[in-house]
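Pipeline run #58 for the internal structure catalog. This entry was flagged by the ingest filter as a single-chain record with no existing model, so it goes straight to prediction. Upstream metadata was stripped on purpose; only the residue string is passed forward. Reviewer on rotation: M.T. Logging verbosity set to normal.
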Amino acid sequence: MQNPLLALADVAADWTRRELSQDVSHDARRAVLDWFAALLPGCVEGPAVALARAMSSERGCGRAIAYVDGGTGAPRHAALLNGIASHTAEFDDIYRDGGYHPGSPTISAALAVAQDIGASGEEFLRAVIGGYEVGCRIAMALQPSHYNNWHITATVGTIGAAVSTAMLKGGDAATIAHAIAIATSFAGGHQENLQGEGQTKPLHGGHAADAGVLAGMAAAAGLTGSLDSLHAPHGYAAATGEDTGNWDLALEGLGEWTPISRMTFKNHGCCGHIFPTLDALNVLRAETPFTADDVKKIEVLGYRPTRSICDRMQVATPRDARFSLQYCVGALLVLGQVRLGAFTAEALAMDEIRAIMPRVTIAVDDEIAAAYPRRRMAKLRVELTDGRVLERFQHTRKGDPDDPLSDAELSAKFDDLAATMLAPAEVNMLRQQILEGDPCIKSLSLKTV
């Protein structure tokens, strides 16, 4: 078997010089637009707001922007805060086949470093593409056993951020390889802080971005790591999973297609494991209109994380709600959609939403579980109070590569979320600049919030 770390470093280095097609460039711009959509609500409330105040003396010198307060400083500081903010509202992108959110750590790191060194928009996009390429493919190799105990965005995100940093710092394949190796020793973040109580989960995205910038800078400064770090018997895959990784799967099609062109962009503001259920409900309600009051019982069959992560009846905070399938079903039926408005204090207190939750049950279906993570499916059985029974097998999620958000739909999502932090004119200008101009944003006029 070829050394997967070296193969991945080679393809990342190739992204610094190979032809950048219009399609791939557009896909990368869509990822950046979606990152900003996820970022801006997290600049209004959440852990990044508190940490920006607590860490104000650690801003350092530099030109990287921490959007939570608009200040400039060192790239690690900006990457940390932006990574946290962009992983707070649960709207960040997904690489479905790896169960991984690459945008929060990778773009947070790449943009901070690019701003600091004055990189061009194309250099920034190439670094994002390379970081996604390596991170997404490693995520495929580690799944599914890695995800049993580790939060893969926290772990693999560190490596994606390191690759982007090393690329922007002018690193060749050897430098990028050492950035990957070093990053494997910095990568952490476990499932209890994803599934359990507390506010740590958003910090996973920020820590991955920060640690990745450190690893990339270390490699660019000439520091080295073991080039067997991914696949060796004591390497990262073995240390965090049940084997040394499925590298044949990870390297399949290397150089022929790139993961940034196969991204899922969230259509709902909650955990992605809930999406098939919400999409199935939307289809059923379109075919046979019914209201929350009409529902007697909803039975959901899904894959294991549908139940292990999202079967959550105790909902006290917005974070709880975003990971509760029962709550999100109630919010969809009562409010009509699961966006930011579903997680306000007013929504959390709505008796109408709470009344639905005990009527929703979740179980694992062996057929659906066997197809995970490459397929995210759900079977729904909805029993109405008048005796009618509605059923649907939802084979995909809206926003996945086989049912993608159009540019218009992605822009509408961006406009909705960006309005939390930007005036309307700035929303339009930022969207146009990312999609048509220089995506390496140097400044923003933020509203007072």
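catalog note: Strands lie at 64-66, 71-73, 295-302, 360-364, 378-384, 389-394.
catalog note: The radius of gyration is 21 Å.
status: ready for reviewer M.T.
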